[in-house]
Amino acid sequence: MERHEQIKQQCVDILNYYYVVPDTEFTLGTNERIDVVGYSKNRNEPDIGIEVELSSDFQHDASKLARTSSFQLRLIVTDHPDTLSLGKSIDIKGKIVDVIPLPDNDVTFEKKIREYTNLNKMQWFNNSKYKSDGTIFPKTLLLDNFSEEIKDQELDVESAKEIIFRCSLGGVHVGNYSLGPLGTKFNRSIDLPKELLYLSARHLIFEARVGKSYESGKQSIYSLSQGAEDLAKTIVDERIQNRGEKLLRIIEKFGKSTTIISLLGYSGRFTDSSQLNGLDPYLTVSTQNSGILRGLIEEFNIDSEIIYASEITAGSALFKDKSKQVFSALTAEGLGNESPDFTSRGEFFGTIYTVPFRGLLRQIDLADWPRSSLEKKLKNYAAWVIIRAHNRYVPTTLFDYFESVGLGIQDIEDRIRELFKLGITSMLMKGDNNTIAVYDENGFNNYCESKIKGAMSEILDED
After folding, report:
1. CA distance 300 to 107
2. Same domain as 66, residue 159
């Protein structure tokens, strides 16, 4: 099925899931066609119109949607950067057309349908339940065959499993290459075990040489081959099952919420770098890439606002050390991998802790997480981090990030008003190129950080 048809089909599946009757290639009176339309309950005419745009034809698609009076929700789903750059909502002759990313990785389309149908409390659509080829490879057989093969080679099965485990989570660093008087020279940092050499010869793992050139040095890191992903998943799942009690002890030590926030916030990959020391710890705020976000929502039914708030919280200056402790503890108990991180020039950058965070989350009861009280505290923490970190000359870094965690203009105004009453900032500037004027930089930083500390204490109290 071609890409355009795949996206149309996913739109159809999501509409069906939310009890909207879909139709494709809907013909207008002008003989033009709309890719997908939806009929809400008791509707004789379609009230949802959707155009899938994989090439830049915005004006034509938007005009078709705007001209159809029965549409109450008009959506263009696209991955074309020119169309996405136009903005989220475009006014076409008094009709609003929403421009959103494709629904296969991003959740905006589904959020629009949830809000329009007033079904926000439903579990999120899970694509894997609708698409399956019906084949399930028996995991035990996969692992048994691997173990027998390693035994036949008179190699150590547990060592081979450990290498596969580590290669699937950040890799195994074994040394570096440099340019010597007689050509390229390999400087090993560990003795290469037979198991690693055999797995490499079997093409289950491969050597990646990281770095710009041999003159400046290339690092030798073994990673998982694409064909070994099923085997690696089986080995990782076995490891998690066998060390379930160790995971429970870690959760008891750090708290359930702190553990979950750390896993969600870093998507299982924490980088500890001394090169970041001295920089403003609130220099940037980032959020999940859409592909990871879509998968998390589908599998764990956690709202996107909570995932975004967890990432902002976990990555903030105050919470980051807590997250590092969680990742370090998981790695020490054999539930993760510690590996060096390098720049594109092959220079040491820091230490990466990588854990199988989805597998670990499956072992944690998420049915009642987060409680409403924690959700409110988590969003409050994220709100003050956003205010402290945002770029005052780029309003989207304030407004869009507040929206991403489920907060609105009023929530921003309430917090900025606190700063204004203390003479630290102006009131919020809406519709301007700036967000606020800061009269006292130290006062601004100190007040925001005091609010962040207070919010963090409230989150930790939940554990």
Report:
1. 14
2. no
Q: Express each pLDDT in 411-442 by its tens digit.
A: 999 999 999 999 999 999 988 789 999 999 99
Number of structural domains the chain divides into: 3
Least Cα distance to 358 among 315, 307, 285 occurs for 307
Q: Which of 196, 229, 262 is the last residue of a domain?
A: 229
Q: Is the pLDDT of residue 156 over 90?
A: yes
User: pLDDT band for position 287 (50/70/90)?
Assistant: low
Asked if residues 389 and 284 have their Cβ atoms less than 8 Å apart, the reply is yes
Q: Domain range holding 224?
A: 139-229
User: DSSP per residue over 7-34, as a string?
Assistant: HHHHHHHHHHHTTPEEEEEEEPTTS-EE
Asked if residues 287 and 313 have their Cβ atoms less than 8 Å apart, the reply is no
pLDDT at 418: 97
pLDDT in tens, 205-236: 988 877 766 666 678 889 999 888 999 999 99
| Rg, the chain, Cα only | 26
What is the distance between the alpha carbons of residues 100 and 109, in angstroms, rounded to a whole number? 7
Residue 307 belongs to a domain? no
Instruction: Tell me: do 149 and 120 sit in the same domain.
Output: no
Q: What is the CATH number of the domain that holds 101?
A: 3.40.960
List helix spans (H) across 90-156.
108-117, 127-130, 139-152
Is 7 found in the same domain as 99?
yes
